[in-house]
């Protein structure tokens, strides 16, 4: 596994992961509403031998989808917390550098960072490598050895 590539992916996905949390909660609430709105099975809705009724199928589909969304929500929330732990360990300059590199292609990112900090390109790349390492260590709790 390439830790640098993984750290870059995490930073690139951070905003989307963060935005997904309220959306997933809303979808779960919608499924819960749907499940309570489903009417009980009528006597004419008897299952065929070995199968379920339409009501049972709809309810089971809702249950499965809800459970998958709950698992996705928990996983995304954990990832967001880990990323935020990594970002919290950085200085403001390091945050700017990682944020710009995750949002832009490296050439454009360097130009933006250079304007904000007045650092030379080579110095920005060195700071980027150090900040990425520091972020990764803080995110995953790895201690230097």
Overview of the molecule:
The protein has about 140 residues and is mainly alpha-helical. About 80% of the residues lie in helices and about 0% in strands. Helix 2 crosses helix 5 (about 120-140). The two termini are about 20 Å apart.
Outline the secondary-structure elements.
Elements: H1 3-37, H2 54-88, H3 92-103, H4 106-117, H5 121-140
Helix pairs in contact: 1-2, 1-3, 1-5, 2-5, 3-4, 3-5
Low-confidence stretches: none
Terminal CA distance reads: 19 Å
Count of DSSP helices? 5
Overall pLDDT confidence: 88
Approximate strand percentage: under 5%
What's the order of the H and E elements?
Answer: HHHHH
Q: What's the β-strand tally?
A: 0
User: What characterizes the major β-sheet?
Assistant: none
Tell me briefly what this model is.
The chain has five helices and no strands. Helices cover about 80% and strands about 0% of the residues.
Characteristics:
145 residues, mainly alpha, elongated, 79% helix
